[in-house]
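Note to self: keep these together.
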Amino acid sequence: MNGISIFGNAAINGVRRAADIEFAARRTAQLAFERVVFEHGKELVTTGDIRHAISQTRRTLTAEVVAEFEQDITEYARMLGLGTSWLAE
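Structure:
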């Protein structure tokens, strides 16, 4: 599995938001850079590097905040008479 698939899985499965995934990717790049500069290691990024970066990245939105936002969207749509069918699109 390559790095892109791991980052993609984290986003698709709702584990992280786009900004969180971007930050984890930058953290992974920094880790690889430091390994090359300070440890004279390889430039390759491992799956372990990516998983570590994702695990160390704090979520910017909690499940509660996301649920509240989705509820607000639903209530606003009802006020406009849109129902909720547009949410599935």
